[in-house]
Amino acid sequence: MRIREIELANYRNHESISLTFEAGSTTIIGRNGRGKTNIIEAINYLATLGSHRVAHDAPLILIGQTSATISAVVQKQERTAAVSIDINDQKPNRVTLNGNQLTRPKEIIGLIHTVVFAPEDLQLVSGDPSARRKYLDDFATQRAPRVLGLRHDFDKVLRQRNALLKSAGRRPLSVSAQETLDVWDEQYVDHASALVEARLVALDELSPWICEHGEMISASTEPLEVKYSATWLQTDTRDKAAIKTQLTHALHERYRDELERGVTLVGPHRDDIDIQLSAIPAKGYASHGQSWSIALALRLATFNVLREFEDDPILLLDDVFAELDVLRRTRLVSAVTGVEQTIITAAVPEDVPQALLDRTYVLED
Fold first, then answer.
1. Are residues 107 and 131 in the same domain?
2. Coil, strand, or helix at residue 161?
3. Which residues contact 90 (CB under 8 A, 6 or more apart)?
């Protein structure tokens, strides 16, 4: 899979820009603030309908404008597709595929696959659990687009359940409020269990590749392991019914605590991925260089799993090489050799290994 053309209008700092790409590697060179990362972000938005940098769409629109447009031509084997996304400030976004407007924007999920590695990925190691949950959920969604619906359904029920718990104001619930909570509990357990099941299956697919890339980047000196971390999940299972039983039990155990605090205390919104480097928790112990290596292993694992089931995803490396020493640069080059399309950004060409400088764009001031 590769992107052949992309055009941005009023996207971030790009009032209008049009680029074409070939197979293989392309490097975009430019000083900080010229909009290199914005191009990477826009390509990734085509695949995920979201930014890997911000939680909401508003910052994506050029200041003073009410909408931004991403248009692209993508190629998968011998087939091509024209995709256009209008990101709107005051109305729903609009997605067209080959000139036909889609009823629901999320129907585009699964058409394009990307894997992006960016400086923000250090948060996968040192940041809050939410960054690691998003990493796993985003991968699960690319593997099975239905997971996007699971995520939305879970978030909706979680908000409703939290609102009811908060309204109780630390008081015992009335009979009617308790009946309402019972209804929300049933829906909550169902959606939460389905999401956790999807996460566990996704991590099962990723784990062998994470370990392999961790060994490759560290020259087998620092074994890397990951596992799902949920205090309420007492047994290692992939059976949704068993997951539901354990979650239901945990909710009953924390019922009084939840009333006291007015918030849901158990479930996938509080789970984490436990990352261990040489059997030691990576968070808080891994050095800056080790953290970069771990984050790279996580992203490259995503790439490898996706390419097992589809064509190569588009690999996006945003200002990666400047943070790597010569040895890690060499190992990363070997890992991306043979990838159908890699798009790289760098402040100066000296940051990028010569083997990846066949084609370059230079963004001027």
1. no
2. helix
3. 66
Q: Model confidence over 119-134: pLDDT tens digits?
A: 889 999 999 999 999 9
Same domain, 80 and 210: no
Domain of 23: which CATH number?
3.40.50.300
CB 193 within 8 A of CB 233: no
Residues 214 and 231 in one domain: yes
Partners of residue 96 on adjacent β-strands: 84, 101
Residue 218 CA, chain-centre distance (Å), reads 24
3 state SS of 234: coil
Do residues 65 and 10 touch, judged by C-beta distance below 8 A?
yes
Indicate if 62 and 126 belong to the same structural domain.
no
User: Which amino acid belongs to residue 248?
Assistant: T
Cα gap 193→185, rounded to integer Å:
12
Q: Please state, in angstroms and rounded to a whole number, the distance separating the CA atoms of residues 58 and 43.
A: 17
Using only the alpha carbons of the chain, give its radius of gyration: 22
Residue among 362, 323, 339 at smallest CA distance from 118: 323
Helix or strand run (H / E) with residue 150: helix 146-167
Residues in the chain: 365
The domain spanning residue 127 has which CATH number?
A: 1.20.1050.90
Extended strands (E) in 102-206: 114-117
Which residues, 6 or more positions from 18, have their beta carbon under 8 angstroms from its beta carbon?
5, 6, 7, 8
> What pLDDT, in 10s, does the model give residues 243-277?
999 999 999 999 999 999 999 999 999 999 999 99
Q: What is the pTM of this model?
A: 0.88
* Side-chain half-sphere exposure of 246, counting CA atoms within 13 A: 21
